[in-house]
Write a sequence for this structure.
């Protein structure tokens, strides 16, 4: 199972209080994780990536294993620690203000 | 005794204010959707417990919410607002053309007789409709065909902020768009035309009487007179007695004819209200005094309503969707400020009192009278 952590507003919207666990088929990519997340929590559609273009929203970042994965291609494999559920895939709201 | 429910959208969530028809003692519920901008929250005439809310933010985009129990619980509904066909372009600040991009929902206007039918006015300006209670949305693209390539966003964004469904003809709809103007359809939204003749935007447009491009801030209508419209333009208060075919200025003795909301009394179709703001440079009331102005003659002759409103050191604004009128026999008025105050008058504006003082900046105010 893949672990995904969400920022406060998206946890509230999804009505969860902690990390969510998702079944994601191999190979585990950002796109596969987000597809599984939106399938399990349809209220999150459009909040992380544009609902049409599927591009990451400007002020959303993806982190895992201490690395910023935000600019990785959506179909690139995520780190093995994420794919095996040892480390969470972190979705966070970027700093965007004064 | 009737219940009064005021729906308040703010920069950081939505609040529901409740009272009885005396409108003296209030309870405050919220915030709903804390931390999110709620540009509009409104009820449906066909089912008062059906509420719709536009929830948005810079990080997570647009979320739409619906309640079927008067705001006790909410469920997310469809948030895909996709322009029909090739979206095309509109004018940009430097004179170039810029692609149409959805940003947020500014205004929701439910049908008077079908709670599942609701229109949404969005930024970048377009009109969408849902016939399934907000699950799916479809654009009415004919609107943007009315010289949309010449529309240019103003400082507040190119937003469609006003939607009025004519009470005697559901196929006639009026909309207003910031920095584009007013438009009307007579065929249910298939075709549209600009209704801006008589508007003058000197120093704002290269052609002061252009067909499109006027910065309309809000429009109001009394349901008993569907051909009479009142408009607060960027500058100038206007009226039309022929469904927007021609407008004439009725600013009269206002201390400033710049402002955002305009409203009509529930039972007196010639009694109208505006909140003058010093100027487009200041965005606060003249002389630091928050004054609602009332005309009982449909414009031109205005009186200041000040009792209960701050008359010194007041530098808040009242935004275009933040003024509402109830339908009780003694007509109630409600306004929300960018300082987070919501004021109520239970006597047509003669006396005002604060309901709540320290909310986040208020973006919208609607009121429902419940049996």
């Amino acid at each position: 199972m893949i672990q995904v952590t969400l920022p406060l507003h998206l946890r509230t919207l999804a009505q969860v209080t902690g990390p969510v666990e998702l079944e994601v088929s191999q190979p585990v990519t950002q796109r596969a994780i987000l597809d599984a997340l939106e399938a399990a929590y349809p209220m999150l559609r459009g909040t992380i990536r544009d609902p049409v273009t599927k591009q990451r929203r400007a002020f959303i970042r993806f982190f895992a294993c201490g690395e910023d994965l935000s600019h990785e291609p959506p179909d690139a494999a995520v780190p093995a620690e994420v794919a095996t559920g040892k480390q969470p895939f972190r979705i966070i709201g970027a700093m965007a203000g004064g | 005794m009737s219940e009064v429910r005021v729906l308040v959208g703010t920069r950081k969530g939505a609040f529901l204010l409740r009272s009885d028809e005396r409108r003296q003692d209030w309870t405050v519920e919220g915030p709903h959707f804390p931390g999110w901008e709620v540009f509009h929250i409104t009820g449906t005439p066909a089912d008062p417990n059906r509420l719709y809310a536009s929830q948005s933010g810079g990080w997570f985009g647009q979320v739409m919410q619906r309640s079927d129990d008067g705001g006790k619980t909410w469920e997310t509904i469809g948030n895909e607002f996709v322009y029909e066909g090739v979206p095309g372009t509109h004018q940009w600040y430097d004179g170039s053309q810029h692609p149409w991009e959805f940003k947020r929902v500014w205004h929701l206007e439910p049908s008077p007789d079908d709670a599942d039918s609701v229109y949404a006015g969005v930024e970048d300006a377009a009109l969408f409709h849902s016939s399934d209670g907000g699950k799916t949305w479809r654009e009415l693209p004919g609107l943007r065909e009315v010289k949309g390539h010449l529309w240019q966003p103003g400082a507040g964004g190119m937003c469609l902020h006003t939607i009025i469904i004519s009470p005697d003809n559901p196929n006639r709809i009026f909309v207003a768009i910031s920095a584009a103007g007013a438009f009307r359809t007579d065929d249910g939204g298939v075709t549209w035309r600009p209704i801006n003749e008589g508007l003058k935007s000197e120093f704002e447009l290269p052609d002061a009487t252009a067909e499109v491009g006027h910065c309309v801030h809000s429009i109001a209508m009394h349901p008993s007179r569907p051909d009479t419209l009142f408009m607060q333009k960027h500058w100038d208060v206007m009226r039309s007695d022929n469904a927007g075919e021609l407008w004439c200025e009725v600013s009269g003795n206002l201390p400033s004819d710049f402002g955002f909301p305009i409203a009509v009394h529930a039972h007196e179709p010639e009694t109208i209200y505006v909140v003058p703001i010093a100027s487009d440079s200041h965005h606060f009331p003249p002389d630091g005094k928050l004054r609602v102005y009332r005309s009982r003659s449909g414009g031109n002759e205005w009186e200041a309503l000040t009792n209960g409103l701050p008359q010194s050191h007041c530098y808040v604004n009242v935004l275009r969707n933040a003024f509402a009128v109830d339908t009780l026999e003694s007509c109630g008025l409600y306004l929300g400020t960018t300082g987070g105050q919501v004021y109520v008058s239970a006597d047509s504006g003669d006396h005002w009192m604060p309901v709540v003082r320290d909310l986040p900046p208020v973006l919208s105010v609607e009121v429902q009278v419940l049996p």
Summary: Chain A touches chain B through 21 residues (CB under 8 Å). The longest helix of chain A spans residues 30-40. Chain A has one domain: 2-93.
